[in-house]
Amino acid sequence: MVRFVLKRLLYMLITLFIITSFTFFLMKLLPGSPFNNEEKLTDQQKFILNEKYGLNDPVPVQYLNYMSNLVKGDLGVSFQYDNRPVSTMITERIGPSAVLGVEATIIGTIIGLILGIAAALKHNTSIDYLSSLFAVLGISIPSFVFAGVLQYYVGVKLGWLPVALWDGPKYHVLPALSLSVFVIATVARFMRTEMLEVLGQDYITTAKSKGLSNLVVIWKHTIRNAMIPVVTILGPLAINLITGTLIIEKIFAVPGLGFQFVSSIQLNDYPVIMATTIFYSVCFIIVILIVDILYGVIDPRIRVAGGKG
Amino acid sequence: MKKSKWSLLLTIVLVLSVFLSACSGKKEEKANGNTSSNGGGSKEKVLNLMETSEIPYLDNIMADDQVSLNLANNVYEGLYTLNEKDEPVLSGAAEEPEEKDGGKTWVFKLRDDAVWSNGDPVTANDYVFAWRKAVSKDTATQYSFIYQVAGILNADKILNPEDPMYNKTDKLGIKAIDEHTIEVKFAGPTSAKPYLKAVLSFPTFYPQPEKFVKEQGKQFALEADKALYNGPFALTKWEHEKGWVLEKNDKYWDKKNVKVDKINVNILKDEATRINLFETGKLDRTSISAEYVDQYKDKKDIFSTVPESSVFFLRMNQKNKALANKNIRHALDMGWDKKQLTDVLLNNGSVPAYFLVPSKFVNGPDGADFREKNGDLNKGDAKQAKDYWEKGLKELGVKKLDLTLLNYDTDTAQKDAQFIKNQLEKNLPGLSLKIKAQPFKQKLKLEENMDYDISYAGWGPDYPDPMTFVDMFVTGGSHNEMNYSNKKYDELVKKASSETDLKKRWEMMQQAEKILIEEDAAISPMYQRGYAFITKSNIKNIHNHSFGGDYSYKDWDVE
Fold first, then answer.
1. Taking a C-beta distance cutoff of 8 angstroms, is the pair A32, B442 a contact?
2. B144 contacts on A by Cβ (under 8 Å)
3. Touching check for A45 and chain B: CB below 8 Å?
4. Cβ contacts (< 8 Å) between B2 and chain A: which residues?
5. Cβ–Cβ of A41/B142 closer than 8 Å?
6. I need a surface site. Which of A75, A238, B83, B422 has the fewest CB within 10 A?
7. For residue range B424-450, what is the model confidence (pLDDT) as tens digits?
8. Which of chain A's residues have a Cβ under 8 Å away from the Cβ of B276?
């Protein structure tokens, strides 16, 4: 197990190196400069600004500088926000995004599992159809539609919850719910399909014929086995939510990371593009590792020792 | 074995929930009453406002965007401030300057009761320090050019990497005579720059407390408590990406004229959210786009439109053979209905433009608006356009023309372009106009390389004078970007820049504009941008500036 994790960590570093280098050169292909009044700058001004930020150097030199700073743990400063260290910018903003993402994932997973299991156990009944309908709607209708509807009806018309802003637990409800719809739908759909498949397996029939109670069969043999694909998709899904979602954060004025990433690309804020990409990749890789470890926990049939992942 | 694995899962869940509750707990502590003041009476007066982005720069010298400039205008103060008519009035300066050397030197007495929020006096040295910082290459602020606009002695050389005086900031034309007196030297006669005092009201010219700035080093102005304030308000809380709070500055010399006690600013990027917050009373004022205007425009007590000084126009690139033809350009300018664009599509207080220099922007030496004399130029109709078109096609010896319109990639710009395309293709037979929408930076690049036919462009003033628009199109100018060249035009602009007879200067600029549009149809003006706002009816004395920071909250009041 330890060897497995160490090996994976090494792969992670290599993956990160490739991602970082690739992003760096791709980013340099973006047109324009990182200066927001670009259309008004004279050539002299552009020269002075580029000099200050080391952008007059050839790209390979910039790359080496960036990588050596990165190894030292220095992610650089933002162009867009007055020399603010990029690491501070991320740590300031990840809080709300992560809280919201975790909340949405938890709500989504719990409700999704219940719906999925219920649908599978009550296969071809109205519960199944309702659950499937919800899953289809939840996946196909974008979350901002739910957000807009919730904001208007619950926030403005009924006045039960705050319309937007981020000032305490009750401000979390609407954005977390809006975000969780997709999770509910996805989890429910996967869970239903997997449950149905597992329920048709021979070992379930064996278990039943051995006289095990229905509850034990479902809990011990069906749900655990059916969970594996769900766990697989849940990892990336959670990371997407935790690292910030542009639209929901925008609609509910959540001070998160989502907007930062998009605006940094639009404005060519190179250090922020790099840092958010690296941050996102690290989260992603770690979650994939956790998911791999969890496989073993949930399903003892999967042995990781020889696995390359 | 099995048990321990389940406990691993349990541990992860627990860790997550601890993390979760820790975070939300912190948030709760931070949250405080967003109480609105609407009760009125002797209660504290609070404004709840919004911005669409985080503050990029709290450092007034670095400020180069609407949010930063507006903030700087309210928490800091320079020699002059703009009043409700956009006229410069004394603020940090105690009296109008004493002129020396035939107007090439100004000596300012500073207010001796002006202090920073830590109680230190605002001194002459704070101005010298700040001005030198602004032209330094280490600062590299995007607004350093405003020192050239003002004509401060040696600014152009200090900012030119090829000049021997490059970055020698101590050569800048400013000197501290004593603790409260500064001497400013100009490169040319100040009488040729009627806009000079207004330019000095720009945040890039505000003082900075040298000692404090040096103590803070790289941390300066990165947080609310890492800056000192000498304006009517002080930034007392700044939660990044969420919002900030301005409170009346107790140390401000004119605090008795500051009516509002506190301003909460939230960052709200989504328009529907702003409207919903407005409707639930959590927001006092917001701009609204065309689709909401009809819903609010009959509510006279809350709806208003404000004209702005940005002008949008179609650039016609004369590198394209067809567009080098004057008749074709005239036809393209007159061939579409500008009024319909502003009234139906934009619907936000924007007005059709038949000019380059906007209306209600600046008044001339005679006190009249620049537009009063020049009026509307090239205000033709579809029939005239068709005549020009046919003449042009004949001269070119073709029957058809395929042109491309380079456009912004925003929704509104797409609708605008589609409208113009339909109009032009209908009114100018044989024209086929393709729309090419590009991300902003890419669009700029194509314009810079003159790799386009027609482009949807705009310009906002950098200083309150027609010259900020007119000098854009001189031959080879870095913002010309369409290969336009007219000797007469160049000469008028050149002469006007050094003319000390203000009346003559004014007329030269008016003449230049006429050549550009009436004679040459070099651009097709589209509209002067406006904004539609909804504002709670108990908020009074709102006025906006056409230059620098948008608002002076000092004058605002809550009833």
1. yes
2. 45, 48
3. yes
4. 300
5. yes
6. B422
7. 999 999 999 999 998 888 888 899 889
8. 151-152, 155-156, 163-164
Fold topology of A93-255: MetI-like fold (1.10.3720)
Is 3.40.190.10 the CATH number for B46-76+217-306+532-558?
yes
Phi/psi of residue A70, nearest 5 degrees: -60, -45
Binary contact (B276, A81; C-beta < 8 A): no
CA–CA dist B254, B230 (Å, integer): 11
Query: Amino acid letter at A249?
Result: E
Cβ–Cβ below 8 Å for A51 and B137: yes
> Which strand (E) or helix (H) includes residue B434?
strand B431-437
B439: contact with A, CB 8 A cutoff: yes
Q: Give the residue among B511, B465, B459, B461 at the shortest CA–CA distance from B490.
A: B511
Mutate to test the interface with B, among A40, A109, A220, A287 (most CBs of B within 10 A): A40
> Which CATH superfamily does the domain covering B80-113+123-208 fall into?
Dipeptide-binding Protein; Domain 1 (3.90.76.10)
d(CA B552, CA B88): 13
| Residue-range domain boundaries for chain A | 93-255
Separation of alpha carbons B73 and B546, rounded Å: 13
d(CA B458, CA B443): 12
Write down the residue that tokens 């920071």 correspond to.
Answer: B549
Q: Is B273 close to A82, i.e. CB distance below 8 A?
A: no
Nearest CA to B356 among B505, B454, B472, B195?
A: B472
Place of tokens 């552009």: A46
Q: Which amino acid is at A2?
A: V
Taking alpha carbons only, the member of B76, B117, B68, B118 closest to residue B265 is B68
Average of per-residue pLDDT across B40-61: 86
- Are B401 and B389 within 8 A, CB to CB? no
Question: What is the DSSP code (8-state) at residue B346?
Answer: I
Cβ proximity of B526 and B314 under 8 Å? yes
Chain B CB within 8 Å of residue A255 CB? yes
Secondary structure string (H, E, C) spanning B243-262: EEEEEECCCCCCHHHCCCCE
Tell whether B445 is within 8 A of chain A (Cβ).
yes
pLDDT tens digit string along A135-175? 888 888 888 888 999 999 999 989 899 998 998 889 999 99
| Topology of the domain comprising B310-529 | Dipeptide-binding Protein; domain 3 (3.10.105)
Give the model confidence (pLDDT) of B179-233 as tens digits: 999 999 999 888 888 899 999 999 999 999 999 999 999 899 999 999 999 999 9
Of A259, A119, A166, A201, nearest in space to B26 by CA? A166
Tokens 């050539």, located at residue? A43
Q: Where are the domains of chain B?
A: 46-76+217-306+532-558, 80-113+123-208, 310-529
Question: Which residues sit opposite B105 in a β-bridge?
Answer: B100, B185
Are B462 and A40 within 8 A, CB to CB? yes
Helix (H, G, I), strand (E, B) or coil at B357: coil
Number of H helices, E strands in chain A: 13, 0
ipTM of the complex: 0.84
Beta bridge partners of B107: B98, B183
- Nearest chain B CA: its distance from A12 CA (Å): 21
Orientation of helix A270-298 relative to helix B2-30, angle to 10°: 140
Rounded to whole angstroms, how far apart are CA atoms B60 and B2?
A: 62
C-alpha distance from A290 to closest chain B C-alpha (Å): 10
What are the tokens at B75?
């928490």
- Beta-carbon separation of A31 and B23 below 8 A: no
Q: Which of residues 264-283 of A touch B (CB under 8 A)?
A: 266, 268
Q: Which residues contact A16 (CB under 8 A, 6 or more apart)?
A: A278, A281, A282, A285
Q: Smallest Cβ distance to B8: which of A33, A148, A297?
A: A297
- For the ranges A245-249, B30-34, B58-62, the lowest mean pLDDT is seen at B30-34
